[in-house]
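Predict fold of SDR family oxidoreductase; 255 aa.
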Amino acid sequence: MITGGTGGFGRALATKLTAADVTVVLTDLDSERNRQVAADLGCPFLPLDVTDLAANEAVVAQIEAEHGRLDAAYLNAGISAAKSEDALDLDEFMKVVTIDLFGVVHGVQAARPAIKRAGGGAMVVTASLAGLSPMAGDPGYSVAKGGAIAFVRSMAPRLDRDGITISAICPGFADTAIIDRIRDQFTAAKFPVLTAEEVADAMVMAWTSAEPGAAYVIQPGVGVVPYKFKGVPSARTESGETAVVPEALRPPSMR
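Predicted 3D structure, encoded as tokens:
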């Protein structure tokens, strides 16, 4: 299942997966254009508003009913806001966060039981470099993608117990519709942008070999690199020793 499946990344990913004989179900907002994209790719299409949890659950149930199982969920739906350095448009901010962050939360919640029933599998979240290095021009996008990465990291231990690996991919600027309004600036600056195919390759890798909770940076000329999160200073006891986190608060890997 690919949410936001008819956009640039979704199309490129669907092309690679169908070539590998994977049954790919594309989900996206219902429109003639989106249905036609799916038809051109030879993929089943299911309309989905990712901000609606019940709709996410219904789509997963339909995939199981029609195809027997769900092995992987690519939570890829997302939008960005108009870039502005001035007043914060709260309506636009909330729209971006609702789609880009809570769409991921709903997707995980809906797909988890099905992938567990299939004997395990993967969830891959399309985050962004903006989630690791926030952009002043689009705080809603930065908050949503940063939140998605944090959600992936915090959910990884419990999903791992179900045999599900969740990870995030964090592309830099890529050649999709999301940069259309500023594409001329990239051209003028001769700034390299990723192809959708490069990002799709990283998405396939994340299904087959990602580490639970990992975030993978994708940059032109660099490739796919696991991001190394810095630790935070540990608390210390009155005697100056490093304090030990209570066992109930530790992930399974630390117990």
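The mean pLDDT is 92.
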